[in-house]
């Protein structure tokens, strides 16, 4: 899943890329407190040995710390476990759902630990915590230059309505990949798609569904995927997932940032942007064209099991609300467990998360996009969350 953020800050203005019930959005409260039910099976037959002992490790003062590690755009400074704020208070078993997902496609550094991760999914919180203390070493993530304080934003999976047929009330198309995709890079810009005959010809017949509001379509493209309630030609309604299939390879530009530069509004929240569009319908295309990037989708069925998780992130595994983050893959490898601390003001967080996704605006060492779920309430939270951040990677010893 490749997404962008709707934040209008300079840090996030370049960014491109959730359910217990398949018919209702995942309440944001559940994403905040992490009460997601476990949906992954535990395969004890894959583990060659019993779960590791859970005795506490040697006192931190007697264990020498390893050397610092340079990882792409970041430097990892080793720290004691006591440096992780709130580590003894997190409900680690809630993060195990996300960790089990990462073990479906583990990176080289974590593949050997996955049998134990699977076994520990039925362990107590004390056993999980003791195993982590023994098996992993925390490192504070820092940029190669500058402060270790970073930026946390959030993203979500929209839940939107669409029609299989174009009509007077549903005239905004959502496209699959165009004909000849990949032969021209970058492909046509958003404005060129709307105005050039050759661009429209390449997209003819590639319409997946039609929406009523161009800003809802933009929100879907910004997030990179979404759940769609599609009205079929026979009058039935199907809920499906539209997943990221590709983009036109143009840079993302925030429409909220454009409106601020124009002096058109002071409230660049998504709600403020939509209010401006309703008051200025004659300038909506001008605003949309300020963002040259567009996203193409593929339609996927949404089973009851799939509906309990988010879309697949860049790691190739389904995202877990409240426990998956998007990162700069050049600073933190996919599948890495990460301790995240952000004091608010919108949402105070001290918890274990998994690096499972990326986005074009997620750049830099201490930068994360927090997956909060799906539906309108998740969208409202994602639109407001922009706050300071500290990260620690938990790397095998």
Describe, in plain words, how this protein is organized in 3D.
It is globular and about 70 Å long. By secondary structure, the chain is of the alpha+beta class. 23% of the residues lie in helices and 26% in strands. It is built from 11 helices and 16 strands. Mean pLDDT is 87; it is low at 7-61. The strands form 3 sheets. Strands 5-15-12-14-13-16 form a 6-stranded mixed barrel. The chain starts with a strand and ends with a strand. The longest helix has 11 residues, at 92-102.
Strands of the widest sheet, in order across it, are 5-15-12-14-13-16
Largest sheet: 6 strands, mixed, barrel
Quote the distance from N terminus to C terminus: 30 Å
How many separate helices? Answer: 11
C-alpha-based Rg, rounded: 22 Å
User: In one word, what is the shape?
Assistant: globular
Output mean pLDDT.
87
Proportion of beta-strand residues: 25-35%
Low-confidence stretches: 7-61
Which structural class fits the helix and strand makeup? alpha+beta
Number of strands: 16
How much helix, percentage-wise, in residues? 10-25%
Order of helices and strands: EHEEHHHEEEEHHEHEEHHHEEEEEHE
Notable features of this structure?
alpha+beta, six-stranded mixed β-barrel, 397 residues, four-stranded mixed beta sheet, 11 helices
């Amino acid at each position: 899943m490749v997404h962008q953020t709707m934040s209008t800050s300079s840090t996030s203005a370049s960014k491109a890329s959730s359910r217990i019930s398949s018919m209702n959005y995942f309440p944001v409260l559940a994403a905040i407190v992490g009460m997601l039910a476990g949906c992954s099976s535990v395969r004890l037959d894959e583990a060659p040995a019993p779960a590791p002992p859970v005795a506490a490790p040697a006192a931190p003062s007697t264990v020498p710390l390893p050397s610092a590690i340079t990882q792409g755009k970041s430097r990892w400074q080793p720290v004691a476990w006591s440096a992780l704020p709130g580590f003894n208070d997190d409900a680690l078993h809630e993060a195990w759902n996300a960790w089990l997902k990462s073990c479906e496609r583990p990176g080289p550094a974590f593949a050997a630990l996955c049998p134990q991760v699977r076994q520990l999914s039925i362990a107590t919180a004390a056993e999980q915590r003791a195993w982590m203390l023994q098996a992993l070493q925390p490192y504070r993530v820092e940029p190669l230059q500058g402060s270790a304080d970073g930026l946390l934003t959030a993203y979500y999976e929209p839940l939107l309505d669409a029609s299989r047929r174009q009509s007077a009330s549903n005239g905004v198309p959502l496209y699959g990949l165009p004909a000849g995709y990949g032969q021209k890079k970058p492909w046509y810009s958003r404005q060129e798609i709307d105005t050039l005959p050759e661009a429209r010809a390449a997209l003819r017949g590639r319409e997946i569904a039609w929406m009523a509001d161009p800003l809802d379509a933009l929100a879907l493209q910004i997030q990179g995927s979404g759940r769609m309630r599609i009205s079929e030609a026979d009058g039935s309604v199907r809920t499906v997932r539209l997943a990221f299939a590709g983009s036109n390879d143009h840079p993302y530009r925030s429409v909220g940032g454009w409106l601020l530069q124009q002096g058109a509004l002071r409230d660049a929240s998504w709600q403020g942007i939509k209010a401006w569009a309703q008051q200025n319908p004659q300038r909506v295309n001008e605003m949309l064209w300020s963002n040259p990037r567009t996203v193409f989708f593929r339609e996927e069925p949404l089973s009851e099991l799939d509906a309990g998780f988010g879309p697949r992130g860049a790691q190739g595994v389904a995202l877990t609300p409240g426990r998956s983050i998007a990162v700069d893959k050049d600073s933190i490898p996919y599948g890495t467990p990460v301790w995240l601390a952000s004091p608010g003001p919108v949402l105070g967080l001290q918890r274990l998360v998994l690096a499972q996704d990326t986005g074009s605006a997620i750049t830099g060492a201490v930068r994360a996009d927090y997956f909060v779920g799906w539906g309108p309430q998740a969208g409202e939270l994602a639109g407001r969350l922009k706050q300071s951040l500290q990260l620690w990677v938990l790397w095998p010893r």
